[in-house]
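If your schedule permits, I should be very grateful for your opinion on a structural question. What I wish to show you is a protein chain and, alongside it, a tokenised description of its three-dimensional fold. Would you kindly read the sequence against the tokens and tell me how you understand this chain to fold? Here, with my thanks, is the record as I have it:

===
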Amino acid sequence: MQAGVSTACLFPQHLEEALYELSLNGIACSELFVNADSDINRSRVHTMQTIMERYGTVCPSMHPFACPIEPLMLFSSYDRRVDDMIDYYRRYFEVMNKLGASIFVFHGNDTRHAVEPAQYCERYRRLVDAGKEFGIIVAQENVERCQSGSLHFLREMIKLLGKDAHFVLDVKQAVRASESPLNMLHMLGSHVCHVHISDHSEKGDCLPIGAGSFPIRSFLEALYQYSPDASVMLELYPQNYRGISDLVSGYRMLSHLIGSVERRAAEKKNAP
């Protein structure tokens, strides 16, 4: 497993500037949160490639800003919108190939425009198939305001999609949907390929690592059993931390915890 930090934490910094600041401060793994079409034009992609090469940064995942229009474009009855949106996301997949990212974070339909699981999965599978053309995994994120906020719905996706069901487990979004993140992990198992992590308590649902009561170590131990190659991205909103030092501290704590979990697993495996 690998710890990282999302560039979304530094919003509204420009994407390449956020990547630079994280890399400069020793954060070797980042999720790229795209906030505008021009974030991924040729020049800015080249800038990000240069930053990654200079600092040895890896970016396993990319998150599109177009999530709010996914209900309109992918889940309406107008078929041309679906085709247009899938073609639009192919542009992201091309950029991801250039930057070495393999996981595309997908929000999907919201609850106000809910469709039946079978229709949802038909549209989702079309995007999944487009991702496969580029070697990209399209991973459904659990988002409280979306159909994916329900654990029951995610389980339905597994039934309908089988091995094509991949998930980004967002801890704060699980809490907002009154779901237990640890229970959600157990129920989704190896279908979870990526995590957005934060702490939480009665003080709030999106806190820096160590500022809440979430049993992070237990969560990581379970994640390692299900998906030992998963990336675990610290994702905090700008109002939920004080500065870059909090992100660096959280990254180091996550890295230390993951290393401890992996060493303990190796010791158990090698024990007589």
